[in-house]
Design brief:
Elements (H helix, E strand, L loop, with lengths): L1 E2 L3 H22 L14 H12 L3 H4 L11 H6 L2 H22 L1 H33 L4 H54 L8 H45 L3 H45 L1 H9 L3 H53 L5 H48 L14 E9 L9 E9 L3 E6 L5 H8 L7 E6 L2 E2 L5 H4 L3 E4 L4 E2 L4 H6 L6 H11 L1 H5 L22 H14 L4 E5 L7 H12 L1 H4 L1 E5 L11 E6 L2 E6 L1 H7 L2 H18 L9
Parallel strand pairs: 1-8, 4-10, 4-11, 7-9, 9-10
Antiparallel strand pairs: 2-3, 2-5, 5-6, 11-12
Helix pairs in contact: 2-9, 2-11, 5-6, 5-7, 5-8, 5-12, 6-7, 6-8, 6-12, 7-8, 7-12, 8-12, 9-11, 9-12, 16-18, 21-22
The structure holds adenosine-5'-triphosphate.
Keywords: ATP-binding, Membrane, Nucleotide-binding, Transmembrane, Transmembrane helix
GO molecular function, one term: ATP binding
Membrane topology: Multi-pass membrane protein
């Protein structure tokens, strides 16, 4: 039985968003102090320390494979800035195409407004030169100020226009994010619901899906944002460089000279961030596991029952101390890098001023132009720092975004091809002929040449020991899997020629592993079909779910999930009644019941088998159960063993033959007889 969501996935997503926020803060320049920079300790060292400190306790939590969102950290740590730059055009191209599909208007607006803002940045810088020229010219101060006024108005106008354009670009960029998110999410979940069911038995597919879901999904909009940030940075840099080139060609290399230390510091600080996350990942992973256990509803009762509070708290705190120690060490390294960056930047700026001084002294550069050059260099430096940061971020996001794209391509390949044969609606008999099936990655076939026949109106039972292949055969009959070899037929129609998605409309399944859908009781029974209250009530009556639902505060409108307000929790058996009602609600000629009574009490079980014996309202029933007494009334029984049919026939004949069915039946019957034969004593003494 499964729940609708997992806490683990929630934590990973949450952490990812935390990292995103942190990255944004750093980009804004506000998150530097709390940034995880430094990454000085080797990952192995941290793991060794953790093991020593835990003296084996870490094994309680256990080593796990790297979480999907960390999949590319190693790659990132090893990549140089040059390597990033080579891949960047492809990434930016993919991002722009994605943005274009999400919203042509917002993409165009973002690009055009950013470019226009760049033009006004350059224009403003050049106009500044006019202001300074007027101010530094000869004559009385009021005259000079008056002369500077037209250029000043141009500077102010350019600044206002630039700000307006940048605000517009920012708005368009912000509008793009939710649209891109929506588009990529819709595509991903459309694919996960359409791929062949066998994909979910394939670990490679699972890994790819988790990587795409946990991080790739969120990185799609980040790639778009960062590609635009790269564009913005480039535009700003070009504007500054263009202005300098117009003022004096020799000023261009000066911009590069001052930009180098800043660029180095920005790139190094970004790399440190990744290394730090990499270093801390095993510790944080364990902390998540513990955090889940300490704050999850499912484990809350056991923590109390086994008085595990102290143990879990100590383990969590030990890991917290590990994390804290790494952060403190990183803070020191962060300071060192910052200071080195500042010193190098200071020296470079000093060198620039020396060159400017020489140019001024030799008369190669007028004073006003030199003043403007200082402003342009400052503006260019800021743009370059943002550009380098965006390049780094875009590369990182791009790796995870590629996971998303790869997963989508893989999922597309796994969507079953649509077959065009006519979909049978009713049948006189359904049969399997020499069906073989092996789960992806499994070494042994789960079905080996199985042939069964189910005639309309019969109750046919599949019995056999655990793992003998009953559920697998039922899933093939339900059109959930296609056999590797052999054929399933509805009368003469071969299912290999039929679109199984449409066939499944004509099959109703009460699965062994049913889901606790976090929906109302009504929707739990109607399951995606238009709810018809009269039919829902009828299905609930047939399964005994009415006794469960009617006393609830909101009746059929009660939400069956305690995690939400006014939600209600049901017991295992109560949930099973709902799952059975779900099967009855679907108006399909074939009803497959896989262990429908495992959690039911004796009375409910009896009532359900009575109902099934009555052919569940005229349907044909395929029944899988270990309650062999209930199989006595089936029309036909197939006994499976290691994926083969080893016995078949009416139950009475099988009992008389004394084979596997007879043996299993006797074992169960004997247990009841023994209990019944026990002398009933006076009961426990008081
Ligand atoms: N998703 C899967 N991937 C790989 N092997 C599987 C998968 N599901 C089932 N199997 C294997 O296929 C075989 C048949 O499993 P199946 O679930 O059909 O048995 P069953 O007869 O229904 O068992 P039970 O009575 O325990 O429900 C088992 O050996 C099982 O381990």
């Amino acid at each position: 039985m499964r729940r609708g969501s997992t806490t683990r996935a929630g934590n990973e997503g949450r952490d990812q968003r935390e990292n995103d926020d942190q990255a944004r803060a750093e980009q804004d320049g506000s998150g530097r102090d709390r940034d995880e920079q430094g990454g000085g300790r080797r990952i192995g060292q941290v793991q060794d320390d953790a093991r020593e400190a835990g003296a084996g306790e870490g094994a309680v939590v256990g080593e796990m494979a790297a979480l999907p969102w960390q999949a590319h950290l190693g790659e990132l740590a090893a990549t140089s800035l040059a390597g990033m730059s080579r891949r960047l055009p492809t990434l930016v191209g993919a991002a722009i195409r994605l943005a274009w599909r999400a919203s042509r208007f917002d993409t165009t607006a973002t690009v055009v407004l950013n470019l226009a803002a760049g033009v006004f940045t350059a224009y403003g810088l050049l106009a500044t030169s006019g202001v300074l020229t007027a101010l530094f010219s000869g004559g009385a101060t009021p005259d000079r100020v008056r002369a500077a006024l037209p250029s000043l108005a141009l500077v102010a106008g350019a600044a206002a226009l630039r700000s307006g354009l940048q605000a517009g670009a920012g708005w368009a960029q912000a509008r793009l994010k939710p649209k891109v998110n929506r588009m990529v999410e819709t595509r991903l979940f459309d694919l996960t619901m359409r791929v062949d069911l066998t994909a979910f038995d394939d670990t490679d597919f699972h890994d790819a899906m988790h990587r795409a879901r946990q991080r790739g999904l969120y990185e799609a909009s980040a790639v778009v944002q960062e590609a635009i940030d790269i564009l913005t940075g480039l535009v700003g840099l070009t504007a500054a460089a263009g202005a300098l080139g117009v003022l004096h060609p020799v000023l261009l290399p000066l911009l590069l000279l001052t930009a180098v230390p800043d660029g180095w510091a920005a790139a190094r600080s970004a790399r440190m961030r990744y290394l730090t996350i990499f270093t801390l990942s095993p510790v944080r992973r364990r902390k998540w596991v513990l955090a889940d256990l300490m704050a999850d509803r499912d484990s809350a009762a056991e923590i109390r029952a086994f008085t595990m509070r102290g143990f879990l708290g100590r383990e969590h705190d030990r890991l917290g101390a590990e994390e804290c120690a790494v952060h403190v060490g990183l803070a020191r390294r962060q300071t060192v890098v910052q200071v080195l960056g500042e010193i190098a930047g200071g020296l470079a700026t000093g060198a620039v001023y020396v060159v400017l001084g020489v140019l001024l002294a030799t008369g190669a550069l007028p004073l006003a132009v030199a003043g403007t050059a200082v402003l342009a260099i400052r503006s260019g430096k800021t743009s370059l720092a943002s550009l380098l940061y965006a390049v780094n971020q875009c590369y990182e996001s791009g790796l995870y975004f590629a996971d998303y794209l790869d997963f989508c391509a893989e999922a597309e390949r796994r969507i079953p091809e649509r077959r065009t044969g006519p979909v049978p609606v009713t049948f006189d008999s359904i049969s399997t002929e020499d069906v073989w099936f092996t789960y992806p990655g499994a070494e042994e076939p789960s079905l080996r040449g199985v042939s069964v026949r189910i005639r309309a109106g019969q109750v046919v039972a599949l019995v056999g020991e655990n793992g003998s292949g009953k559920t697998t055969l039922a899933k093939i009959l339900a059109g959930l899997y296609r056999p590797d070899a052999g054929e399933v037929r509805w009368d003469a129609d071969r299912l290999s020629e039929v679109d199984l998605e449409r066939l499944r409309e004509n099959v109703s399944v009460i699965p062994q592993d049913y889901t606790h859908w976090p929906m109302t009781a009504r929707h739990n029974i109607a399951m995606g079909r238009t709810p018809d209250d009269a039919r829902i009530a009828e299905a609930a009556r047939a399964s005994g779910a009415d006794e469960v639902i009617e006393p609830l505060s909101q009746g059929y409108g009660t939400l069956l999930d305690r995690r939400f307000k006014d939600g209600h929790e049901l017991s295992g058996g109560q949930w099973q009644r709902i799952a059975v009602a779900r099967g009855f609600y679907r108006d399909a000629p074939l009803l497959i019941c896989d262990e429908p009574t495992a959690a039911l009490d004796a009375r409910a079980e009896h009532a359900l088998f009575e109902r099934i014996r009555g052919h569940a309202g005229g349907r044909t029933v395929l029944l899988i159960t270990h309650r062999l007494a209930s199989v006595r009334h089936a029309d036909q029984v197939y006994v499976l063993d290691h994926g083969r049919v080893v016995e078949e026939g009416p139950p009475a004949a099988l009992l008389a033959a004394g084979g596997v069915f007879g043996e299993l039946y006797d074992l169960q019957a004997r247990a009841y007889r023994l209990e019944a034969d026990q002398p009933r004593g006076p009961g426990p003494s008081r």
